[in-house]
Amino acid sequence: MAAGKLSPRQKMINLMYLVFIAMLALNMSKEVLSAFGILNNKIVESNSLTDSRNESSFLQLAQKATDQPGQYGDKKEKVEKIRKISKEFSDYIESIKVEVTKKYPKDASGNYPFEEMDKGDLIDRMFFDQEKLSKKGKEFFTKIQEFPAEIKKIGGSSIAEIEMKKIEKRFDVSPIYSPKAGAKISWMEYNYHGFPLIATITKLTQLQADIKTTESDVMTGMFQSDLVAAASLTAYQPIVVLEKSVFFQGEAVKGKIILGKFDPSLTAKSVVVNGSSVQAQAGQANFSFGSGNIGEHPISGSFNFDENGKVISLPIKDKYVVVARPKSATISADKMNVVYRGVVNPMTISFAGISADKVKATAPGLAPTGTPGQYSMRPGAGTEVVINVTGTLPDNSIVSDKKTYRIKGIPGPTGTIRGEMGVVKGPKSSLEISTVGAKLVDFDFEVGLDVVGFNFKVTGQPTVVVVGNKLNPQCKSVLSKVGRGDQVTISEIKTKLVGAGSYLLPRTAPVIYEIQ
């Protein structure tokens, strides 16, 4: 068109042609911008649907965690943390979109003015400082880069390795080869430098979609792992079913081995054992009934389930054998597994299968109470006592057993005033007539304690040594000099057991009386 000398008419035609080409280019650009805008709207709509699906999946997981905390509790906790960081990341991206679209309000249909968003300077200035990343750009890049690592840190082994690799690839920010540049350039420059604003908005929306998809994949993967585990043979256990529950010496042990599966999510509608209803639990039902006479007895009943509107009954059929108790000693302390010096320790001693009148128990300090099988133990010196038990069988043969018990002293008591411990508050007149006592805190035996002496001390006054459990005249004289807020310390409390002679208890903790 530029060759040779052109007539004015030809020049006009050429000019119109150039204008026509420019208009075509302009129209094409507007179509491309509109296409990005429409795509952005589609992704936004899809993100909303994904949010709804994710919320529904999480509610299912939360319900399972409530029903079966052992199996799903840890997964729910991990998903909650992943959802939290996913929302924070998505909200951060949304804040960028809001900031760069302030000048482009949406119309009544919720659409941006796509054709006006053809410049990329807003994003360029936000993410780049000449050829380098700006502070905001580095922040944005770092959040994308670290997101998969945070997911992996929270999810751990709950996220399959193949699924984790998909997530890492989805947020890969490695340099990318640019045909235009003929070399690899940074991920940020390749994706966010020099693009029309609407194109960048669409990319940011797609990044939000990737976040939501990751959240969905994590939850789906956790459910899938449970389904795979349920279908796996590792969910089954070999169960030994004996021909009978008890065998005698010399008998052949007979039975069968079956594969059984315990499903903790399955609860029966009802369970009947030997004609009685028992409570159905997750995957099982516990029962209890009297053993009956010696011999073989049946166990029968049914597990009943609702399935497709019908009751399905699974029969229970087994048996058990009752035999005489084995001849072994049973020795127990009624209060605890030790005996205490200074108190009467009640003991129950028996020999399984032997009547109480044929059982004899001996030990230092041990004496029968007059009731069959009942003894009292008053341990003496030392740290241990051995109880020897013998029993006479019907054939007059003797069986024997023994057990060693530790001997412990009674723990130190705590001082009291008016029966109160610690810091007791009240008027001087109340203290003058109060009794100094002692208590054994958290001790299993009922014992009586007598206070036979104590020290009475007021700051700035000499200590008064008292014999007995009440204030003497010297104490009252000192007490007359104290004022409101002063404290009286009663210490060195000497305590002994009632009826235990000269047996003194360990040091008694002091008690303080604050004058009101």
From TrEMBL:
Gliding motility-associated protein GldM C-terminal domain sequence ranges: 411-499
Family annotation (InterPro entries): GldM_Ig-like-1, GldM_Ig-like-2, Motility-assoc_prot_GldM, Motility-assoc_prot_GldM_C, Motility-assoc_prot_GldM_N
Domain Gliding motility-associated protein GldM first immunoglobulin-like span(s) in chain numbering: 229-323
Record-annotated Gliding motility-associated protein GldM N-terminal domain positions: 31-224
Residues covered by the Gliding motility-associated protein GldM second immunoglobulin-like domain: 328-408
Origin superkingdom: Bacteria
Protein name (database record): Gliding motility protein GldM
Organism the protein comes from: Flavobacterium nackdongense
Source lineage: Bacteria, Pseudomonadati, Bacteroidota, Flavobacteriia, Flavobacteriales
